[in-house]
Amino acid sequence: TIGTLFFGLAFTVFSGYRGSFITQNFIVATLLILCGYQSILFAVFTKVFAINENLFPKDERLERFFEVVNLERGLIVSFVTLIAGILSLGMGILSYKIGNISETHFLFAGAILIALGFQTILFGFFVSILGLKRK
After folding, report:
1. Which residues contact 119 (CB under 8 A, 6 or more apart)?
2. What would you measure as the largest C-alpha separation in the chain, in angstroms?
3. pLDDT tens for residues 14-56?
4. How far apart are CA 94 and CA 116, in angstroms?
5. Is 0.85 topped by the overall pTM?
């Protein structure tokens, strides 16, 4: 959440700034977003594993989550995220090639979207494997 807020601020409030200041903001925001997302995925993996091994009782919220979020829906969201990331990365590379090197936000947004999309694909497959024991 903090990383997303930081990234949004870098896009809007600090958009008039150029150079290393804006680049540093994007680097920190990217780091925070990726670490936060990894933490969420780890929490879900841990919870599913603990329930499957009867270390924790069944969780109704987790059951409802898996009723809404399944492998197919996760893959659709992942591929849309990957496509958006590739397009954003392409826009960043294109703006750099035409001489507008100050448009680094497209590169950072593309990198984040591609990483999140890829992580979500792997998350979907792994949590589905963990969920096989539940059925």
Report:
1. 37, 38, 41
2. 58
3. 555 555 556 777 788 888 889 999 999 999 999 988 988 889 8
4. 22
5. no
The helix-helix angle for 2-12 and 104-131 (nearest 10°) equals 160
- Residue 93 is encoded by which pair of tokens? 């590379």
Q: Is 17 helix (H, G, I), strand (E, B) or coil?
A: coil
User: Per residue in 57-84, pLDDT tens?
Assistant: 998 988 888 888 888 999 999 999 999 9
SS (H, E, C) 65-122: HHHHCCHHHHHHHHHHHHHHHHHHHHHHHHHHHCCCCCCHHHHHHHHHHHHHHHHHHH
